[in-house]
Amino acid sequence: METGDESRVQQAAAERYESELAGTVLLKTAMHMIDRAQIEPGLSVLDVGCGTGVVARECIRRVGPNGTVIGLDISREMLAVARRVAPDVGWIQGDGEKLPFPSELFDRVLSQFALMFFPDQEHGIGEMWRVLRPGGRLVVSVSGALRDSPVNLKLADLIERYLGERGRAVVEDIWTSTVPEQEAIFTRAGITTATLTTEYETTEYPSIEAFVETEIRGWAPLSELVDDTTLDSLVDDARHELAPRMSGDGHLRFNSPYHMVVAVKELQPGPHR
Fold first, then answer.
1. Of 27, 12, 72, which Cα lies nearest the Cα of 220?
2. Per-residue confidence band for 201, with pLDDT thresholds at 50, 70 and 90
3. pLDDT at 273 over 50
4. What span, in angstroms and rounded, lies between the C-alpha atoms of 206 and 240?
5. Whose CA is closest to 60, among 35, 36, 104, 90?
6. Contacts of 57 (CB under 8 A, 6+ apart)
7. Residue 184 to residues 99, 124, 180, 195: CA-CA distances in angstroms?
8. Is the pLDDT reported for residue 1 higher than 80?
9. Whole-model pTM?
């Protein structure tokens, strides 16, 4: 059972996630995913691992009054923010590996930067595929490999310096996906129509301090491990080690790689005459 302190940390992380991440990098990738999913008026859409709902609330604008959008997340703190920001979406607390829906219910299923947190990613993909109607589209995005993101790799090194292997493991849960790994997950889930592309999104922060604080305080698993004193030390070290990457206007900009997987579920053959 969560303690009051844990719940407060997670609620603060959800608020920071919404205010610092949802409207910037996450919105850009969300729009790209929605375009690839071909979200149209009247469709039924499921957003798995919705967080504070950036994908779901963009989808609700496109499906119109005759469509439906459901956002599902395991975190009640994330959903509390989502409900406040977009009350017209159907928000459900649930496990992405045990979707509480009948098979073939949705025209589109999307999942933005959530799959890497699933204990059993193959099963999670299988569940998304199960609730997708024939002819429907599944669109999933996951972070790329840590080695391909030098700025995040430096942050991982700093976190390991202060928190040891436990802290490093949390970062690697977010940034561990290679192309072969993702392709293998979909193949094992029995999805043969998936196509994977690697994309690069420009991430921008107004300062190194904002980058470190947002990346740590915006993700509950990291925020729970880092107290204020440790965060101050991390920021001090980051100022020195990331200074060469600062742009002339004092902002920190870098490319963040991520993978997008799109799969169309085959239409079932009709009866033979």
1. 12
2. confident
3. no
4. 16
5. 90
6. 69, 82, 85, 86, 89
7. 22, 14, 6, 12
8. no
9. 0.90
The domains of the chain, with CATH numbers, are: 4-264 (3.40.50.150)
- pLDDT of the residue at 3: 60
The whole-number pLDDT of residue 233 equals: 95
65 DSSP assignment = T
Tokens standing for residue 228 = 């204020």
Place of tokens 């159907």: 90
Q: Where are the alpha helices (DSSP H) in 66-120?
A: 76-85
**Torsion sign, CA atoms 75, 77, 81, 83:** positive
Provide the H-helix boundaries in the chain.
Answer: 4-16, 25-37, 54-63, 76-85, 121-130, 150-174, 179-188, 208-217, 220-223, 228-241
Alpha-carbon distance of 216 to 155, in angstroms, equals: 10
**Cα distances (Å, whole numbers) of residue 190 to 29, 47, 93, 98:** 26, 21, 27, 18
CA 41 centroid distance within chain: 24
Residue with tokens 């109607």: 133
For 176, which DSSP code?
B
Q: Which residues contact 164 (CB under 8 A, 6 or more apart)?
A: none
| Tokens encoding 3 | 């303690």
